[in-house]
């Protein structure tokens, strides 16, 4: 899909579809180290996002901005704020030119920077950051090597999944899971799981 309203809508619909298909899995992950609401929260928020009509917006930036605001107001909790923040920043930096792989990477990076600023999470804290940092680093490495959006996003999705899986042995240092201390080790972080759906959805729709 091109980087227009329809492309952005396809990305969000694919993310919603993955989250909905895995709502019980996300809930189970959050039950192990949190409060068992991540699946339901994300499903509710993405239902509100996919109910938006992309044709009702002037362009992809306006549509993605509304997506961010909708996520903040409907998902709730830390993940609603962080995903909402991500889309607000991505919207502001969304490339205006089709096929602008570096521009898309810059938009992702702006979104990730704001997630880290708001969540104050760094690599190794056992959060979505552990999936998103390697994902967008892989994206940037691919585009710096001259690759286009398709292969760059494919590499980002693979790196994201690897980062997600690497959260299992970590001891949580942020969020509710951190209350568990060492008992948080041995569980996959639910935010890293839903963030991987986000990047996988981008890889399957934006190229
Ligand atoms: Mg929760």
Instruction: Give the uncertain stretches in residue-range form.
Output: none
CA-CA gap between termini: 6 Å
Please tally the helical runs, counting DSSP H or I stretches of 4 or more residues: 9
Task: Classify the beta-strand content into a percent band.
Answer: under 5%
H/E topology pattern: HHHHHHHHH
Structural class: mainly alpha
CATH fold-level topology: Serine Threonine Protein Phosphatase 5, Tetratricopeptide repeat
Number of domains: 1
User: Biggest sheet, in brief?
Assistant: none
CATH superfamily: DhaL domain
User: Do you know the CATH architecture?
Assistant: Alpha Horseshoe
Judging from the principal axes of the Cα atoms, what is the shape?
globular
What is the arithmetic mean of pLDDT? 96
Helix content: 55-70%
* Assigned CATH class: Mainly Alpha
Hetero groups in this structure are: magnesium ion
Alpha-carbon Rg, integer: 16 Å
- Please tally the β strands and state the result: 0
What would the keywords be for this entry?
207 residues; mainly alpha; Serine Threonine Protein Phosphatase 5, Tetratricopeptide repeat; 9 helices; 69% helix; binds magnesium ion
Describe it for me?
The chain has 207 residues and is mostly helical. The protein has a single domain, classed as DhaL domain (Serine Threonine Protein Phosphatase 5, Tetratricopeptide repeat). It contains nine helices and no strands. It has helices at residues 5-21, 23-33, 38-50, 60-75, 77-93, 101-119, 129-144, 149-165, 190-205. The protein is globular. 50% of the residues are buried. The mean pLDDT is 96. Bound molecules: magnesium ion. Magnesium ion (MG) binds at residues 30, 34-35, 37-38, 77.
